[in-house]
DUF5590 domain-containing protein
Amino acid sequence: MKQWILFIGGFLSFLAVVLTILILILGNKSFLDVEKSAIAQVKNENLLAEVNRSYVYSNDQTSVTVIGTDGEGKLKAVFVPMTGQEISETALEGKINAQEARDIALNDMDVKEILHTKLGMEDEVVVWEVVFFTENDKLNYVYVSATDGSIWKRILNL
């Protein structure tokens, strides 16, 4: 009887691990497909010659941010909306970079863990979204303007 209990417990544990891995893989597949499609679109339209990074940026209008260099070797970001709107782009030379945005956003904050820093478009303003946990385990979003480094919006202590 003890062997059956051990067998069933082991089997259920194995099944839980397999299902968790499967859910994680299938859940991220749609994001990867959308990113690949956005990168292909950016390259087909000759907006970027080389892609360095891409990720999904979510706000009212979900889009894919593709960062890379254009044909002249200048660093640019291209924002590819998932539905309806036109592609927009911005040169990143002379703008606030991710590390500077983090430094601005985290100034005078007790940060426990930084979750991510992403470039995106909010109401026609290019912003860095810095997401982090404070020491008291509260989730915080700080949006820093990529143009001048000002705080565009804060959502604190969630």
